[in-house]
Amino acid sequence: MLTTQFLKSRTSTRDFKDMAIKQADLEKIQKVIDGEIIKLGKDDLAFIVQSDGEKVYKALDGKAGYGGIMIDAPAYLALNTLNDNPASLVKGAYGVEEIITELDKMGIGNCWITVGEVDESIKKEIFAYDKGEVRLLLAIGYPVDETVREHKFDDRKGIGEFVFIDELGKKATNEDLEQRGLDEIFSYARFAPSAYNAQPWRFVLVDDLIKLYIEDYKGNVNLLDAGIIMYYLDKLGESISMGSNWEIQPEINDDKYVYIASKQL
Q: What order of strands is seen across the sheet that includes strand 109-114?
């Protein structure tokens, strides 16, 4: 499947078959995780797979979930940030999206689960870790409904609402984007998921530099949003050989636009 088509059809799985993930698939997932840790930094992140889905579901039912509803799945993957550096959470979200891409190739569905209100002692009991903090979960398993569902174009902001030229507030024109080969990339990047579909990311193009900001920053949830959109841009940018080396240096403050990262085209 073309990257653009994959991104358009990238949707959550909320109903999973009542069957354990095959051991061979679990081993493949672990290889993907090991590769991500090497790329993203073992001092910043850990990904933990708990294949006893029933244990996780019973412990978190009523305490966590997707839109407040706990998803019953055969297994769960936890993102554990090992320090308080905001960049670690950005990198973690990026890594989860890479893992999702590989899960999709294996026919394994997924659904993000928020655990911000869950007591850390409960999460430690479930996932057996003693360092860092589990920030989110991914419910994983074989989907009951394997029908591909596409996002609609009318449920996302237009490019002019989140891409600027030279400075924040100065909207980029189609010509500005075409000159840089970015018109189609940003057109599809609109489909990147974000909390409540708020699309808080804002981009400023300065010569051959892309700067990423978050508008009306609301905390960790937006750091996750940032990591996700960065991954989408990188995957879409492969078509024009755009690099994937982001400089992630969040500058958390009370400004309307909070700087997160930048990269060269």
A: 45-50, 75-81, 133-141, 109-114
Give a three-class secondary structure readout of 97-155: HHHHHHHHHCCCEEEEEECCCCCHHHHHHHHCCCCCEEEEEEEEECECCCCCCCCCHHH
For the chain, domain boundaries = 3-141, 153-264
**How many Å apart are CA 115 and CA 265, to the nearest integer?**
35
The CATH architecture one would assign to domain 153-264 is: 3-Layer(aba) Sandwich (3.40)
Superfamily of domain 3-141: NADH Oxidase (3.40.109.10)
Q: Confirm whether 3-141 and 153-264 share one CATH topology.
A: yes
pLDDT in tens, 19-68: 999 999 999 999 999 999 998 999 999 999 999 999 999 999 999 988 77
SS3 call for 215: strand
Q: Residue 181, SS3?
A: coil
Euclidean distance between CA atoms 225 and 200, whole angstroms:
8
Q: Per-residue pLDDT tens for 203-248? A: 999 998 999 999 999 999 999 999 999 999 998 888 777 767 899 9
- pLDDT tens per residue, range 82-121: 999 999 999 999 999 999 999 999 999 999 998 988 999 9
DSSP structural state of residue 192: -
Q: What are phi and psi of 19, to 5 degrees?
A: -150, 145
Report d(CA 119, CA 113) in Å as an integer: 15
